[in-house]
């Protein structure tokens, strides 16, 4: 296991991949571009499903909308056609249009026939509102930031307050990007990997649950029922924000099965204490790297034996565990950030330096 993974609470019972990240699914890479200057605390994160051109070689995918308060783009075509045509981009709410334009320009540069002799391209951008820490009205995200994140995509990447996660808040502390993976035996002698990456920007502190323990309730009591650094009363503030949950797997699944897998991301989210609040945009997407679907009709469609439905439960368990672990990773790997108008979100590990002792207690 990656050494950094040992510095956060361990979730569940399934083994992780060697990196304990979404990049344990072979071919998947992640890149960030971070803006961190004064009132500008935001950025872009890009997930590449493989090293090639996803417009020409699409990957099967599906989406579940747990709560539809989000302002993402590209979901309708994923739901209809069951494929990804671009890398997956994450950013802030007001950056969606700019990043979608950047995705279109990137695809057209690689395939000049797009929108002329070839079909148009479906950009796919997810968002969360980082307006508490970031001056979202400044519209600071630029097309070049998407290009930089795409160019920097790698199997090893930072987590926490980076990229699209720079300005995000989670359970009234600093949130952001988190990732994890789990290995599941769905068939005798055959193991598949399920990797998760989240953009975590949600939750009420008293609801925070870590490895089944009421961690947030105890932390709220330590803070006298409120959060002085945010000027909030953590006991009464409604759940607001959003979370984007991305799942990748090397298991051979079709889009219908991937929709079922994406739904299980909600199980991992709920385990951390979310109730998918009214003002929260909670969206999950799952994709498989086991095969690709060609853009060009002259190329043959793949002939792949899909995983039998009766063997899919281990993947459901892996998806729930990986998403739960990824949310905890986003919290524990985030640094404290001060942004717009002096607003500050503290790192949860600084507020609870004795978290190991808390989780080790038999009585909580």
From TrEMBL:
Example GO molecular function: aminopeptidase activity
Residues that span the membrane, as ranges: none
InterPro entries attached to this UniProt entry: ArgJ-like_dom_sf, Peptidase_S58_DmpA
Root EC class: hydrolase
SUPFAM superfamilies tied to this protein: DmpA/ArgJ-like
Entry's EC annotation: 3.4.11.25
Keywords: Aminopeptidase, Hydrolase, Protease
Protein family according to the UniProt entry: Belongs to the peptidase S58 family.
Protein name in the entry: Beta-peptidyl aminopeptidase BapA
